[in-house]
């Protein structure tokens, strides 16, 4: 396996965050003044982009065929740095397309029923489905696209009255009242604005898996030593906390809000013979005492990260650090990281943002 390329080059970091890694790499290779190290990283980046695109195109071919077998016509678009496939279908085919993708092993973050399901199909416009393994395969299924040329006022009105997952999660309505979610939305927005309702909706977003190829580079960026206590926020089945304990010799804590998944994580730690060094906590990370942790890793929806990064950073002692990896730009509400590092592995790309206590 080719070793990962790790770089703090701000141009490379920006290229990844702007989804233009391959363009950056070609520009570096075409520039006769580029240094040897930059050219090596650029060559590695192009090879990784080729691998990711080929893998995603295979998924696109398979899923397009599955949709065709269900009588659904679709168009696909792939990225060369993200394991993400965009599938466009007609609005009338949205429900059947979701069903076909579930048969293919993909899952949605939320299941809607009754009025919420009908409102979702009418107003949702798109949804994200994921299939997890050693890395996430992500499908963005779209059946509506914003109409061009809408005025600013029209866009604002639409934003105020068009329901979203946070609105469908408020209450179950009789199916005949599917239209009422649009009427409820302004009241929810006002309630959140004045503090009468929570504006935390991260649990309605899909949680993705950190690819195996990124683990060792992320551990290196976090500088995990055998004296550290490593915390994985949203640890899933425990793959990362077990890997950290095995490869870095540290103690590890996994925080997981799903009881079933937390049980699977404990079983993984026991199977690896690491029960004494790996502790799995079934809890919401917001309610968990992480004061014994010295380093924490996040790969969570940005809405969740915005709440948890400052909270966990306050709990860490002197020398503590947090690493959040993501291919998209950080939310403005997050504090500026101490450093941002580009990581390019054989079949995965990310930016690791690190905050130091």
Largest sheet: 8 strands, mixed
> How many angstroms separate the termini?
34 Å
Based on DSSP secondary structure assignment, what is the total number of beta strands?
13
Determine the fraction of residues in helical runs and give it as a percent range: 40-55%
Our estimate of the beta-strand percent is 15-25%
Shape: globular
Return the CATH topology of the largest domain. Answer: Rossmann fold
At CATH level 2, the architecture of the largest domain is 3-Layer(aba) Sandwich
Order of H and E elements: EHHHEEHEHEEHHHHEHEHEEHEEE
CATH superfamily of the largest domain: Vaccinia Virus protein VP39
Structure description:
The structure is a single chain. The strands form two sheets. Strands 1-12-13-11-10-7-8-9 form an eight-stranded mixed sheet, with helices on both faces. The chain has a five-stranded mixed sheet with strand order 2-3-6-5-4, with helices on one face. The protein is globular. The protein has twelve helices and 13 strands. The longest helix is centred in the N-terminal third of the chain and has 34 residues, at 36-69. The chain folds into three domains: 10-142, no CATH class; 152-204, no CATH class; 212-356, Vaccinia Virus protein VP39 (Rossmann fold). 41% of the residues lie in helices and 18% in strands. It is an alpha/beta fold and 357 residues long.
């Amino acid at each position: 396996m080719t070793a990962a390329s790790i770089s703090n080059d701000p141009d490379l970091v920006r290229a990844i965050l702007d989804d233009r890694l391959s363009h950056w790499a070609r520009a570096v290779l075409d520039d006769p003044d580029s240094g040897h190290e930059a050219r090596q990283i650029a060559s590695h980046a192009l090879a990784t982009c080729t691998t990711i695109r080929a893998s995603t195109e295979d998924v696109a071919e398979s899923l397009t065929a599955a949709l065709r077998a269900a009588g659904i016509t679709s168009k696909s678009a792939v990225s060369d740095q993200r394991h993400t496939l965009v599938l466009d279908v007609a609005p009338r085919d949205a429900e059947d397309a979701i069903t076909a993708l579930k048969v293919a092993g993909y899952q949605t973050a939320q299941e809607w029923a009754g009025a919420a399901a009908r409102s979702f199909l009418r107003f949702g416009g798109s949804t994200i489905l994921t299939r997890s393994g050693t890395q996430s395969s992500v499908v963005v299924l779209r059946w509506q696209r914003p109409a061009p040329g809408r005025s600013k006022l029209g866009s604002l009105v639409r934003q105020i009255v068009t329901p979203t997952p946070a609105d469908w999660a408020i209450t179950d309505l009789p199916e005949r009242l599917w239209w009422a979610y649009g009427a409820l939305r302004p009241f929810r927005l006002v309630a959140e604005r004045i503090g009468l309702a929570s504006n935390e909706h991260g649990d309605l977003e899909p949680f993705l898996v950190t690819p195996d190829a990124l683990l060792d580079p992320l551990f290196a960026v976090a500088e995990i030593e055998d004296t550290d206590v490593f915390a994985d926020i949203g640890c899933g089945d425990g793959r990362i906390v077990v890997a950290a304990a095995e490869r870095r010799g540290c103690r590890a804590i996994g925080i997981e809000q799903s009881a079933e998944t937390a049980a699977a994580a404990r079983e993984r730690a026991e199977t690896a013979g690491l029960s004494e060094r790996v502790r799995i906590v079934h809890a919401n990370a917001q309610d968990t005492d992480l004061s014994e942790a010295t380093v924490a890793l996040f790969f969570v929806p940005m809405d969740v990260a915005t709440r948890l990064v400052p909270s966990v950073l306050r709990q860490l002692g002197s020398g503590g650090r947090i690493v959040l990896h993501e291919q998209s730009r950080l939310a403005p509400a997050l504090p500026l990281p101490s450093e941002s590092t580009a990581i390019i592995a054989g079949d995965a790309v990310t930016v690791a943002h690190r905050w130091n206590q």
